[in-house]
Design goal:
By secondary structure, the protein is mostly helical. Helices cover 72% and strands 2% of the residues.
């Protein structure tokens, strides 16, 4: 059997680390404002909030927003508050996801619902969402607010659609793409749209930025779904085969079932009851014995290229080059051994 687990890529952090270095001052302000924004006289709110936001998130969404702002000739400091909003929306969705998915690990630490309970996690997620909307409302861009409302609605629809399809391996590729477009790629798209909208950017640039974020988000989520079948918990920061345990059918499993017809029957049988750890390991083993992982990564790379292509209308700069590098390396979070 081919080795299931992966090793971290030695250079995987380089593009993000370089972008962080370029944006160091603005990102420091993001962290400070983020901490202030989740403050409350209700002690449990900052406690639950900091359990998640201080657990090692890479701040990819704020980084993309600030890079896109700089690429559109905007002072990145103007993007600090909107960057905080994007991180709040993201972390609120993670708190809600961990309740729905019943995961035990998030970013390598115990998931908030396992520490504070489901009720506190949901309510603090709602608090973060409300604070984030407040930031965007104060920003005063009605078009941006309108786009955000559509994104948040699509995030909820994507999660509900995934819930409805749970355990159904007959999920089609278009259905899968619809799910990840809503639950993940939409917020990436909005981040980049927000960054470009900060200055007097042409409508063409704003739409190009949104397209970049959408394609980047698709590549990011597909790679994340691959990690569910390939990475040890200490590398992914999540439970092994967490998606599989929750009955989620993602691209690697779809592609594997096309090649291994016995796998389809196994998954259908397992889906009728709560999958055991043994069941999950057997399915993971069979997925890794097909070409599904490499094929899924090829899908992700196609989206990465779409993201890069969308930057053609943006004037070259160091920020644009950083965006290209991030898009090129989004699939390099893993290296099959």
């Amino acid at each position: 059997m081919r080795e299931i687990l992966t090793q971290p890529v030695a250079t995987q952090a380089l593009p993000l680390a370089k972008a962080h270095a370029l944006l160091a001052e603005a990102l420091e302000r993001v962290e400070a404002v983020l901490s202030e924004t989740v403050s409350s006289t209700v002690e449990m709110i900052p406690e639950v909030s900091h359990h998640l936001i201080s657990s090692g998130g890479k701040r990819i969404r704020p980084t993309l927003l600030l890079l896109m702002a700089q690429a559109c000739r905007v002072d990145v400091n103007q993007g600090v508050e909107l960057s905080v909003a994007t991180e709040l929306f993201h972390n609120a969705s993670l708190l809600h996801d961990d309740v729905v998915d019943r995961g035990h690990l998030r970013r390598g630490v115990t998931a908030a619902p396992r520490v504070f309970g489901n009720s506190a996690s949901v309510l603090v997620g709602d608090f973060m969402m409300a604070r984030a909307f407040g930031i965007v409302v104060r920003h005063g861009d009605l078009d941006l607010l309108r786009e955000l409302s559509l994104v948040i609605s699509a995030m909820a629809e994507g999660e509900v659609l995934q819930l409805i399809r749970s355990g159904k391996v007959t999920l089609s590729l278009p259905n899968y793409e619809e799910i990840i477009s809503g639950k993940t790629a939409g917020l990436f798209s909005w981040c980049c749209r927000a960054g470009a909208s900060l200055g007097p950017a042409r409508a063409e640039l704003v739409e190009a930025a949104a397209k970049f974020g959408k394609a980047f988000g698709m590549a990011f989520q597909i790679t994340d779904d691959v990690l569910d079948y390939t990475a040890a918990p200490e590398q992914s920061g999540k439970d092994l085969a967490n998606d599989l345990q929750q009955g989620k059918t993602t691209l690697p499993l779809l592609l594997a079932c096309e090649q291994d017809h016995k796998l389809l029957k196994i998954v259908e049988t397992v889906a009728e009851s709560e999958p055991t750890e043994k069941d999950c390991f057997e399915i993971v083993r069979r997925v890794n014995n097909t070409q599904a992982i490499s094929l899924a990564l090829n899908y992700a790379r196609q989206y990465s290229q779409k993201a890069i292509d969308s930057l053609a209308v943006v004037t070259d700069s160091s920020a644009v080059e950083h965006l290209r590098q991030l898009a090129n390396h989004v699939t390099d979070r893993i290296e099959l051994t």
